[in-house]
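Lab notebook: predicted structure, single chain.

Context: the supervisor wants predicted structures on file for every construct in the current expression panel, including those that have not yet been purified. This is the next one on the list. No modifications to the sequence; it matches the entry in the shared construct table.
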Amino acid sequence: MKRIGTSDGRFVDGSRRVPGTPVSADWLNGMQEAIAQVLEHYDGQVDPENDRQLLDVLRHQVAARFESIAALRAFGGGRAGQAVDVAGYYAGRPGSGSGVFVALGADKTRADNGGTIIVDAAGMRWMRLGKTFDLYDFGASGNGSADDTDAVERALAHAAATGSEMMVPAGVFRLTRKIAIHQGMSIKGCGYREKDAGGAEKLTGSWLFFDHADKGIEFDGDAGYFTGAELCDFGIVRPQPAPVDGVEWTPADAQWDIYFHAMASATVSNVMHLRSTRGIYAGGNVGGNKGTGRVDIYRSRGCWFKQGIEIDHCYDVLRIDQLHAWPFWLDHAEIHKYMLQHLDVITLRRCDNPLLSNIFTIFARAGLRFTKSSAGSTAKFHLSNADFDRGHLGVWVDASNTNGITGQAVNYSCQGETDS
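Prediction complete. Output recorded below exactly as produced.
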């Protein structure tokens, strides 16, 4: 398009003595052609019967930035192939859940999943562009107070449908009910830190806040035995009452943070449990028809109060390596007393071939407890490089094991606590 042929390329008004800028037919024809090219590009052809055609095209193309997902849903004039930018999942919170969406003209069936597919008021499907998506893309707030359960379930449904990972970005995601999963899936964070430089609690990185007493995450293979459960690089936190000097302290009772049932394989790596009553359980059904297969737990850090890790019906190999059990929340005398009376860090029931290495526990009733279940007892355990510090019992083979257990232990130490 050519600008008007004045010295500065701008129109000027005329007066009685000085004429205004003359508009030539050549310039008007050039303007008309530029407008026609825009209409043909975005609308296919110039419609001589539609005086609003240019306005409609400009409205659809220039208004290509929306403040929120709700604003995109309210939009009813998209065209196939059109791309729009959404500033944030919620209005007034730019950046969180933002993204680029493209209109899918031919698709009239895909449902709105609240994250990667949004359906607008006219039924147009908008697909979020990208290869990986996190909880913010499905509407999570991550501020530790808003209820993010629905957003997490939307993200899990997408991961289940596409075979992708569920990414937990930096934030504290509050959940008010159990998350149930019935297939193999990876849930991955970006790491975690529980305290600031001064030692005060400050949750940074990826955290799941289980603000309820039920199980936190449950993988259940009863309906279909499956492999590939993987959890790594995030922290878990539960609410607990604050201790008071000289007053007997009791934690809020809650179920397991992570619960595996009838799984062929499961891996937990670099997951922290902060203020947790119970940590990780893996088990199966009586009789071994759907027991627990391979279980790998690496670099686990736990502030547990009753039970850290319990394994039962495990007929493959259990590996626990680099476990650190410590009252990371508060180093308080009343908490120590409770843990010394109640906490069993590792409990093994029917467990074949467990390989345990590089274990540290403190203030525990038992660092490692062997007890019997309806499926039997532990056989051929291997324990190496363990320190059970300031606890009641290091290794406890309780009275339920009437036929004993088999295994070996090397390079481990146990130090008692005088008031245990």
